[in-house]
Amino acid sequence: MSNPIVSLNTGQNTSLHESAQLQVTIQCASAPSALDVSCFMVNESGKVPSDDYFVFYNQTADPQQSVTLQQMEKLKCTFLIDTHKLRQAPVSKCVFTATLEGGTFAQVEKCQAIVQAGSQQVTYEITQATQETALIFIEIYKHRDDLKVRAIGRGFFGGLKPLAESFGVEVEDPAAAEVAAASAAPAPPSPAPVPSTNPAPAPVNLSKIDLLKRKVTITLEKKKLEPIKARVAVVFDASGSMYHLYRNGTVQEAFERILAIAATFDDNGELDVWFFAEDYLRAPSVTARDFENYIARTYTLGSKGGTNNEPPVMEDVIRKYTVEEPNVSMPTYIIFFSDGGVSQKRKISQLITKSSTKNLFWQFVGLGQANYGVLQKLDEMPGRYIDNANFFALDDISSINDEELYDRLLNEFPAWIKEARAKGILA
Asked: What sequence ranges are listed for the domain VWFA (predicted)?
C-alpha cells in the first residue's frame, strides 16, 4: 500500500485511490477578501457541455449530482464528488478555481487544495505568489478507468465572469443584452426550429445581484446561521432632503444591495418596495431580472417631497403582510431607510408595538447625521410582546463595504426569528 499522504508540486499528478466519494477542499489561511470557489466540469476541449456543469454558490450541483458544493465559508469551500456518477457524466475533468472579490492572490497566505479519497489525502499548496485575481488550483480528471489529480496553480486575470467565459459558460450581461435588443434590426423570417428533447439551458446570470448574494451568504455563514427564508421589503425616505441621494445614484445602489438579501431569502427572489414623504407609494415588486435603473424607472424624482410622515407607510406595510397577504409561517424583514426628521414618536411607537405580535421585523437605517427621534430609543420601547425592531445610522451608506453593511443589517433579525418561533408568532 502506498503512502496515503501525497503532497504535489505545481504540474505534478497522482492517481486517486478507488473510493465511492471524494472530498475536495479549497482554502487559505488569510486573504484580502472572500474566496469565490467554483468547479468547472469540462469536456476534452476544455469547455462545459452546458452551463449546468458550472458548480458554484448559485448552482450547487450538476445535473447528475456528481459534484456537489457541500460547504461554503469565507476562506474555505468543500465539494463532494460521487465517483460513480462522475464516470457517467459527459465530462473529462473537474477544474477547481477561486476568484477574489478584492485584492490579488499575492496577498493570500497558505493557499491549499486538499483531496480526500478514503484514507488517501492529496495536498497541494501554492507557494508562488501571483498578482492575478483568479487562480486555477487543481483538476481531477478521468484516466483510463482511474481518476487522477493534477496540481495546476495558474493565475488568471479578471474576476469570475471572464474566468467562467474561458470555460465556455455563457455569462449574461443584462445591460449589454438590453442595449443589443434595443438596437438590433429585425431579422428575416427563419424556418421553425425542430423541437429538441434537450433544450439548451438559460445562461447563468452573474449580475451584480448574484455577486452580492454571495456576500449575504458569507455573512450568514460567519454568524453560523442557517439559511433564512423570509419575505423582504424596503422602504425609502423620499422627502425633500433625500433629493441629492436619488440624483447621485446612492438610493439605487442601496436598493441593489437590499435586493440581494431578497434574492437570497425569498422563494421567488422578490423585493417589495415603498417610497414615502408626506404621502407614500407602494411600488411594483422587483427581482434580479429587472433591477437595473429601478429607482429612476419607478420613482419620479421629487414627486413625493415635503417632510417625513412615517405612520401611513408603516400602516400600509403592516396591512399588506397581515391582512392582504398573511403568512404566519414566513417571517417578514422590513428595511426602512430614513434621513432623519422623525417626529411622530407616539404613533410610530404604537405601530411598532402593535406589530410586535405579528411576523414582522423592522430594521431601521439612518442615512447621515440627523434627528432620528424614537428610532434611537427602540431598545427602551415598553409594551412590546417581543423586541421586533433595530436601528443603526450611517454617515454615508456609499462608503460602507458590502460585508460590513450585511453584518449590521443581519445583526438582530436572525435572533428575532428564533424568539418569534419560540413565542408562537411564527408557525
From this structure: 231-409
DSSP assignment of 30-89, as one string?
Answer: B-SS-EEEEEEEE-TTSS-SSGGGEEBTTB-B-TTSSEEEEEE-SSEEEEEEEHHHHHHS
Looking at the domain assignment, is residue 343 inside a domain?
yes
Using one digit for the tens of pLDDT, what is the confidence trace for 323-359? Answer: 999 998 899 999 999 887 777 888 999 999 999 999 9
Evaluate whether 350 touches 314 at the Cβ level (below 8 Å).
no
- What strand order describes the sheet that includes 271-276? 280-286, 271-276, 231-237, 332-338, 360-367, 389-394
* Domain span at 105: 5-172
Q: Does 177 reside within a domain?
A: no
User: Would you state the torsion angle of the CA atoms of residues 201, 207, 211, 217, taken in this order, to the nearest 10 degrees?
Assistant: -60
Q: Are residues 21 and 151 in the same domain?
A: yes
**Bridge partners of residue 280, in order along the sequence:** 276
Q: What are phi and psi of 366, to 5 degrees?
A: -90, 135
From the list 289, 46, 11, 326, the residue with the least C-alpha distance to 169 is 46
**How far is Cα 58 from Cα 135, in angstroms, rounded to an integer?**
19
pLDDT for position 264: 93
CA pair distance 138, 135, nearest whole angstrom:
10
426 or 344, which is more confident = 426
Closest CA to 240 of 316, 364, 341: 341
Q: Pick the last residue of a domain from 172, 188, 219.
A: 172
Q: How many structural domains are present in the chain?
A: 2
